[in-house]
Design a protein that fits this description.
Layout: H1 19-23, H2 25-28, H3 43-72, H4 76-100, H5 105-109, H6 124-133, H7 148-158, H8 163-173, H9 180-183, H10 195-206, H11 212-243, H12 255-261, H13 268-276
């Protein structure tokens, strides 16, 4: 039986925007440049996985910046929706590792040398996500000195309040007893756990009906952090599976280096609330 086509689907599109043009697929699909010689079949997989990751990171950065702006504008409903989207993107990033696990150690070693010193540690967007979530460390910018635009972006984000900073400031505006020294802290540095913040946030969880918007947003923050930790864990396990305990291409210790980051907490008092209740 012959396939039927909708008569409205024309074939003459000289003056219309096409799918390829709108998505600039000529640029996107020509940016996978393999370097192995002779070309190794699996290098394309390795490149596409990491390029796709950077595209998702671009969206996460876009969304987190908007979430910060929305909370600053007291628009928690929109911020909550945005963080729900971020969580789903994080799930995609987690599941993406499964594709890379089909790359065996034998296959990877046949083209690993073409990576040189390139490493995910050099990802400006990954570092931007960490800064936006509050894991600030000015020393990290030095690792991006080779990329002036990237270093400038990180420097700008370093000097701005993180997602957790604006969350706590909103809580204070609504009457919760967030200590003034927490509100006035240097946002270029990491947040330091404060017992008084735990007390203030415990109030939200004891009376969610009174603090519903903050309660909902707090749980969205926990969602984002949990998914980030799961992504880090999966990253560590995939690296262990593919290269074992070799040194990373960027010079890090590899698996031991990645393992240290799994338990890092962006929003520590939101985790301590669970014990305080």
């Amino acid at each position: 039986m012959a396939r039927e086509f909708d008569p409205g689907m024309g074939t003459d599109l000289p003056k219309s925007m096409t799918y390829t043009e709108y998505l600039q697929l000529d640029r996107v699909l020509s940016s996978q440049r393999t370097l192995s010689n002779p070309p190794h079949h699996d290098e394309l997989l390795f490149i596409i996985i990491h390029q796709a990751t950077e595209l998702w990171f671009k969206l996460v950065v876009h969304e987190l910046k908007e979430a910060v702006a929305r909370i600053q504008a007291d628009d928690l409903d929109t911020a909550s929706k945005i963080l729900s989207r971020v969580k789903h993107v994080q799930r995609l990033l987690f599941d993406q590792w499964a594709v890379l696990t089909t790359l065996t150690p034998t296959e990877y070693t046949q083209f690993r040398d073409v990576l040189g010193h390139s490493s995910g540690f050099q990802s400006v967007q990954y570092r931007t996500v960490e800064f936006l979530l509050g894991n600030k460390d000015e020393r990290m910018i030095a690792y991006h000195a080779h990329d002036a635009a990237g270093a400038a972006e990180l420097t700008e984000v370093l000097g701005q309040p993180s997602l957790y900073d604006v969350f706590l400031r909103y809580a204070a505006r609504k009457g919760l007893p967030i200590p003034q020294h927490v509100l006035d802290r240097d946002v270029r540095t990491p947040h330091v756990v404060d017992p008084q913040v735990v007390v203030a946030l415990t109030e939200i969880y004891k009376h969610p009906e009174t603090w519903w918007q903050l309660y909902d947003l707090a749980e969205k923050l926990v969602d984002v952090e949990e998914h980030f930790s799961l992504w880090r864990f999966r990253h560590m396990k995939v690296v262990a599976r593919v290269i074992g305990f070799k040194t990373g291409t960027g010079g890090s210790a590899g698996v031991p280096f990645l393992r240290k980051m799994i338990d890092h907490e962006f929003f520590p008092e939101l985790w301590q609330v669970r014990t305080a209740l």
